[in-house]
Amino acid sequence: MSNGTSDSAVSGNTVSLTSLEEATRRKKQGIYILANDIVLDQLIALINSIEENVGKQMPICVVPYDDNTQQARNATEGYPQVEWFDDAAILEKRERFATKIWQAHPTALRAWAKRGVTGVNRMGMHRRFCCFDGPFERYVYLDADILAMNSFDLLFESLDEHDFVTYDFQYKDLSHVFDVDAPLLTEVFAQERLDSEIFCAGMFAAKRGVFTDEMIDELLTHLQAGEAEILYFHGPDQAILNYMVLKSKVKAMNLARTLPAEKRTGCCVTSPHFVEEETVLFDKGEQLIYLHYIGIGSRFFRQICVGKNILFPYRDLFLHYRYLKESTQPVLTGDPVAYDRPVLTTKRKLAYAAREWAITLIQQVPVLNTLVEASTPESSNGLKNV
């Protein structure tokens, strides 16, 4: 989108604006999405859901997860409101920030190296931090595994009184944000805050500039001084963003905690009770703002889009939005297979095979005994010679 220059040029969906155009655009609201070719089908479904339920004119800026984006760029050319964030300086800036943090962590880099990862694991996930420097004055950030189910007015309006807004129930599970065994954890943050202020990094609304360079430098200083040990390195970007919000004490809110109980809705695909009406979901009569397909790997979405009969919650709703602008959907073939069926390792497969062999052998014991009895000579008194 913005590349830091004042020249006007257009190339595909990448736009370099004049300073006047950029100043005008910076006053607008918009949506950021983190994506690449791996999540192409999910990206299209999400954009279509935004058009249908948020608004066709809502500006969307796609942040590239990595350099593997050509197919996704081609696919979004038909959406005039969609542009790509191609400011190389900002992308590099946020990756440097993430690298410094994980270099300060006592075990993360070594643990990743043992798994064959060079450098920072899932570096692309940290590119969501580019939103802090992006073109939108107010914005909603979305992971690609989300569908918009309603207007985002509540999220944007909440920014009138707050700088950072979330709407989820991650606060109930601290273990996927911070290392709960880290000795420093409750020294850095009071337990009361850990029990109530944690959030999921997959969806948030914020204001541009909520984290200044000076604030980020100060946060990095604290992390490098030892506080990095509290970060949960299996969810690296989420850990960092939670740390930033809690440590900087920006004015944050979670709608899942502040809305009246009768107005709150769930957002996660693992909730089976949502009711679908006219291709949006309701929770006890209240319309969801978004649905997060959290925990369902991108490969399953790719598989159903080529006709494999993979079962996962709200699958048909995803297919509706993915093919909203196409005349047909893929025909799913083969026996249905649940996305969360147990995956057998080679060791487990061998164990199961050995177990089945043992069961078969035991079942054959009566047959073997019968054969032995039939072939054993009997003594004169009628007893078997044993």
Question: What is the element layout, followed by pairings?
Answer:
Elements: E1 9-11, E2 14-16, H1 19-25, E3 29-35, H2 40-53, E4 60-64, H3 70-76, E5 82-84, H4 88-104, H5 108-114, E6 138-143, E7 146-148, H6 153-158, E8 164-166, H7 185-188, H8 191-194, E9 203-207, H9 213-224, H10 236-248, E10 252-254, H11 255-258, E11 275-277, E12 280-283, E13 286-287, E14 290-292, H12 298-304, E15 308-311, H13 315-322, E16 333-338, H14 346-375
Parallel strand pairs: 3-4, 3-6, 4-5, 8-10, 15-16
Antiparallel strand pairs: 1-2, 6-9, 7-14, 8-9, 11-12, 12-13
Helix pairs in contact: 2-13
Q: How many DSSP H or I helices?
A: 14
Overall shape: globular
In which order are the strands of the major sheet placed? 5-4-3-6-9-8-10
Largest sheet report: 7 strands, mixed
Mean pLDDT: 89
Second rung of CATH, namely the architecture of the largest domain: Alpha-Beta Complex
Helix content: 25-40%
Number of strands: 16
- The CATH class name of the largest domain reads Alpha Beta
Strand content: 15-25%
Order of helices and strands: EEHEHEHEHHEEHEHHEHHEHEEEEHEHEH
Runs in which pLDDT lies below 50 for 5 or more consecutive residues are: 1-12, 14-20, 22-26, 378-386
